[in-house]
Design a protein that fits this description.
Structural class: alpha+beta
Oligomer: single chain
CATH topology: Pnp Oxidase, Chain A
Helix content: 10-25%
CATH architecture: Roll
Number of strands: 14
Radius of gyration: 19 Å
CATH class: Mainly Beta
Shape: globular
Strand order of the largest sheet: 3-2-6-9-10-5-4
CATH superfamily: Electron Transport, Fmn-binding Protein, Chain A
Number of helices: 6
Distance between the termini: 38 Å
Strand content: 25-35%
């Protein structure tokens, strides 16, 4: 099957992307509106950008007509946000926050989550999460679309403070099984980590010894 994305609709390209690039980690993002309302929304176009300094990116798709979603608009204004990791214990509440509530309704309050103060940013974090990353906006890039009506806001943020639940932390590492992260698949399907396996990265000499021709 060969497919030219320029010859099909946006929704068809979306289906190919989310059905191929998976599982995708989910960023549960809190931000604050100009009126002080705390917004919380999940986004699965999310990844690490840099480790020095630690930076992440979240793509927030725009609404029809190129209208920014609350999260992107809030971050563009306040220049800060918090990312929470989605896990097996909070995924149901996180999914509820994807409901299209009005801008003046806090998803956090609507779904019964609790807020905690952050250390370096004014945006609060979610108590029902095991890992939280306080972020300051590095750059927000309107991309895609036709130029006058972008498709997405690519948000790049610097992580300025980490919060990790004590029992997940072991000598600088996070214990994956205890975190129990949840990823997004296609459609309305989610996944847990399931079976894991380890494969070391080989040196050229090790590769030659193991796989090279004699």
């Amino acid at each position: 099957m060969q497919i030219d994305p320029a010859k099909q609709e946006r929704v068809d390209n979306y289906k190919l992307l989310v059905g191929s690039i998976l599982p995708r980690p989910i960023a549960f993002v809190t931000s604050v509106a100009e009126d002080g309302t705390v917004n919380a929304s999940p986004f699965s176009f999310f990844t690490v950008v840099s480790t020095d300094p630690p930076m992440i990116s979240v793509s927030v798709g725009r609404k029809p007509g190129g209208v920014q979603k609350d999260t992107a608009r809030n971050i563009a204004h306040a220049k800060e946000f918090v990312i929470q990791v989605v896990d097996g214990e909070n995924v149901e509440q996180v999914n509820q926050t994807a409901t299209e509530f009005p801008p003046d309704v806090s998803e956090v309050e609507a779904v019964g989550m609790d807020l905690l103060s952050s250390v370096k940013v004014k945006v609060p974090r979610i108590a029902q999460s095991k890992v939280q990353m306080e972020c300051r906006l590095h750059e927000i890039l309107p991309i895609g679309g036709d130029g006058s009506s972008p498709n997405t806001d690519l948000i790049i943020g610097e992580v300025v403070f980490f919060h990790v639940q004590d029992d997940l932390y072991d000598q600088g590492r996070i214990l994956t099984e205890k975190l129990d992260p949840v990823g997004r698949l296609a459609g309305t399907t989610f996944s847990t980590i399931g079976e894991t396996f380890s494969m070391p990265r080989l040196s050229p000499e090790e590769w030659k010894e193991k796989y090279g021709q004699s």
